[in-house]
Amino acid sequence: MKRPLLIFTVLAFGLSWAAALPLWLGGGLGSPLMPVLGTLMMFTPSVGVLGVWAVSRMPFREFARQSGLTLGERRGRTAVLVLTAWLGVPLLAFLAMGISAAVGLVSLDLDQLSLLRASWQARGAEAPADLTTIAIVQIVIAVAAGPVLNAIPALGEEWGWRGWLVPRLVSTNGMLAGLLLSGFVWGLWHAPLTLLGYNYPRLGSWAALVFIGFCVPAGVVMGWLRLRTGSVWPAVVAHASLNAIASVALLLGDAAQPPNELLAGITGVVGWALLALLGAALLRFYPVRPPHPAAAGPAGPADPAARAGSAEPAGRDEPAEPVT
């Protein structure tokens, strides 16, 4: 049982550092290679899953079902949660900004959009006179098209973290501990970039620790999406939408008092709290059962994720593990 986990970990983490190595050798996050290498890094968890499959002697079709690449047994539920993730993540991002402003952690500039204007100037471009229309268009594109444009690289991560790893950790550690641990591992995997200050440029290498604080509650929510449906696709859409909208929401701030990424927005402390509350509510009111290992077949012991594709919420006859 430990061999697949070792293969996955070595490939996902080792290749992520290999992909980011040119950034460490020169240029850092400001390197022109950053977009390409950052995207390449996102596929390393899927390479880890493929490494596990290569030694599993399991037909790929069955392995794909077990690791969440299908739509699950209840496709209608999966479709509903895909749509919920598509629209819900932007809602959470803007709600986090609203709460951040309400408690005095960020100053919004919805009239002049000075931070958005400053972002144009930082790229050496002259900001349009009508920034309001630009902001609306940018938000609409991020909400409507972002999940589609970001879906493939998001799948590169999600097939590994939620598709393969979450069912394994939950089946061996329990529901809550497994989901929390999966988020921790996900956050730790980002270290090749976050140690350079990625997402939290003011913090330098401390960004690596801070981003784990975001990934843990976010991982609980995305893990719940995976287990509730038996499919990785709702988590893929949530991840893709998050990548599209998070920075756009922050640009509603005031250039004179730029948002503190540690505190404000969906990836700040306010966002952590929102995601933690959401995750607790989902597990409490819409519980899911840990997947159980299938019986050993001709190819040897089945992966503990074997029944992830058919995970269903616990009913009265089979109570879900309590959430603490």
Brief characterization of the structure:
The protein is mainly alpha-helical.
Structure, described:
It is a single chain. The protein is mostly helical and 324 residues long. The protein is 64% helix and 0% strand. The protein contains 14 helices and no strands. The protein has helices at 2-25, 34-42, 44-56, 60-66, 75-102, 114-122, 131-144, 146-149, 151-173, 175-189, 191-194, 207-229, 233-250, 269-285. Helix 9 packs across helix 12 (207-229). The protein is globular and about 60 Å long. The protein starts with a helix and ends in a 39-residue tail after the last helix. Mean pLDDT is 88; it is low at 293-324.
Descriptive key words:
0% strand, disordered C terminus, 324 residues, mainly alpha
